[in-house]
Write a structure and sequence with these properties.
Layout: H1 4-22, E1 43-45, E2 48-50, H2 58-67, H3 93-103, E3 104-105, H4 119-134, E4 148-152, H5 159-169, E5 173-177, H6 179-182, H7 189-203, E6 207-211, H8 214-217, H9 227-245, E7 251-257, H10 260-263
Parallel strand pairs: 4-7, 5-6, 6-7
Antiparallel strand pairs: 1-2, 3-5
Length: about 270
């Protein structure tokens, strides 16, 4: 039986022969230098230096070229985007990634004609939301629009669709959240997520934060509720108060509920 070192030598010989057959015009040494003297470009992944093989399959070779991990002009690594913003440096990267992937939605072009019926709601939202977003210079002082709107109606009547339509008409970033997206098994993560959500929304102005089933998230506080739920509600009220006091921010909180009577008992 052949020894381990002998097997390794035979494998190296087979690999070298296959490289010569595949690319007879040139071959590459271990230091990354071709036979003709040209230096192969070296890439860096973390602290490990690698040299891409020119005999690699086209798909892999193209992927290595697109990565440009040496800091090329067109490179965008995983740490780019919102996580490089100075105002978000004190937030956990996992929280920012959660907001980018699950809460911040891509709003496609949605017009009022895409929403069937609901003429009264559409007319009211045009006047109190869309027009102030488009012409903030005309809605100041006593004509300042509200910073929060509550939509109510039975399930399936188009409340979420109206929220997307409002964000599309205002050319705003749409944040779609629910009670499940703000809950965490770790104590203290919920309020951090709320704080980070409003910070990201202020970076992406104009923004529309849509809260679905708001009665389950901001129900009236009681003595029997969990401490984490109470802290999330408190943080929400602090952020909502900041939105209401800053009239120059084009940030709207749009909430929806199918329990109108219960919404009167929500925290205020």
């Amino acid at each position: 039986m052949a020894s381990g070192s002998q097997v390794v030598k035979e494998m190296k010989q087979v690999i070298c022969e296959s490289q010569v057959i595949t690319n007879p015009g040139s071959s590459a040494h271990e230091d990354g230098t071709n036979v003709d003297g040209a230096q192969a470009p070296k890439r860096y992944l973390g602290n490990k230096k690698i040299t891409p093989s020119f005999n690699a399959p086209p798909m892999i070779r193209k992927g290595l070229e697109m990565m440009d991990v040496n800091g090329g002009s067109g490179a965008k690594t995983a740490g780019s985007g919102l996580r490089n913003e100075p105002t978000l440096k004190h937030f956990d990267e996992n929280i920012i990634s959660l907001i980018e992937s699950e809460i911040m939605s891509v709003t496609h072009e949605t017009g009022w004609a895409d929403v069937a019926g609901l003429d009264g709601a559409k007319k009211a939202l045009r006047e109190i939301v869309v027009l102030p977003f488009k012409r903030p210079d005309m809605f100041k002082g006593i004509r300042a629009p509200p910073k929060g709107v509550l939509l109510f109606g039975p399930p399936g009547t188009g409340k979420t669709m109206i929220g997307r339509c409002v964000a599309s008409q205002c050319k705003a970033t749409f944040f779609n959240i629910s009670a499940s997206s703000l809950t965490s098994k770790w104590v203290g993560e919920g309020e951090k997520l709320v704080r980070a959500l409003f910070s990201v929304a202020r970076l992406k102005l104009p923004s529309v934060i849509f809260i679905d089933e708001v009665d389950s998230l901001l129900s009236a506080r009681s003595e029997t509720e969990h401490e984490s739920s109470r802290r999330i509600k408190t943080e929400f009220l602090v952020q909502l108060d900041g939105v209401a006091t800053n009239s120059d921010e084009r940030l709207l909180v749009l909430a929806a509920t199918n329990r109108r009577k219960r919404s009167k008992q929500m925290v205020a």
